Amino acid sequence: MVLRAAAMFDGVSSALAANPLVVIADGVIVAVEGPGAAVPPGATAIDLPGATLLPGLIDTHLHLCFDASVDPVGHLAQTDDDALRGQMSAAARRALCGGVTTVRDLGDRGYLALELRDGDAAGGADPLPTVVASGPPITTPGGHCHFLSGAASGTRGLRAAVQERAERGVDVIKVMASGGNVTQGSTAHLPQFDAEALRVIVAEAHRLGLPVTAHAHSARSIADAVAARVDGLEHVTFMTADGVDAPDALIRAIATRQIVVGWTVASHPDQRGAVFPEIASRMAALVANRRRLHEAGAMLVPGTDAGVSPAKPHEVLPYATEDLARAGLSPAEILHAMTSRAAKACGLGHRKGRIAPGFDADLIAVDGNPLDDPAAIRRLRAVYAGGRAIQPDLLGQARIEVP
Ligand SMILES: [Zn+2]
Prior knowledge:
The chain is α/β, with parallel strands linked by helices.
């Protein structure tokens, strides 16, 4: 198969290439040619006149088991695993219809996201995005998201929790270093695990060859997680009891060590009032600290936390462009962050996030020039996942109902 379009952003350049011809075989990009290249004999040519090709978008942080309702936690409690499998598969397909061809699930129940990942590899009837998953996050007894059954404590218990996840085949260990917003009785600005507990988790994960990413709102937890040598941080809001506190030395350490900073971005425009009050009251300081991290050269990637509220449907990632621009990212930096850099953050830098020979044929085609206006990524013309086209009538927002 050959895709021809008017322009192409390849995931790493800062300029568009004109009149690309992308050759795809067995779900992989085998050649990328310039203007005037001939269609290889026997190939089916698909023309996308006027469109710009990009690598498929990558959401580094979502939850397929949360249904993006006003009460995702309550609904999850009432949903058995069989029903949940269907709901998660629909949520994944919905992300794909928004142009998100890879998702990293950072908290499921019963390792169901791994089933989805492995079922997809076997080739289902409908294309799904590529799934990378942590399984249930490791948390304290009664702590943030304890209802996902990932509570553990004590050196032996924490090591066992990491070992269980490794045996299950997770791609990354997720630990709830601080409290969070969706859990009753949990306080985002307070640590859950201390520095020593985080060190135990990271050491065991690294011994088993797994990266660790830490959910960390609390300023104290961010410092502890950095000291414990985590590979990634999620949210990174630097919350204290009455505001935020992001010391220069900590910002510099995060940037120098190139710890992945998973920013929570993107809200559906119809639902922008629905931000958690703990976040809304700190938003100005939060944006200022994002700018500081970006200016310090930190490795920033967008994650949405899709599923946790009505503002966060599973296809919400393309709405991250405004949040990233507000933090000082240029259009090229925004596109890099959503493609090649996000791929690297998910451990998929060798096969996702770029349009280049040897990379998976995950592509989107959009109207307009996303380097002039990144919001062009919301004007979808086509989506390909592993070379398989998504039905055009399913493209865009909210076309698949999550049961
Ligand atoms: Zn989350």
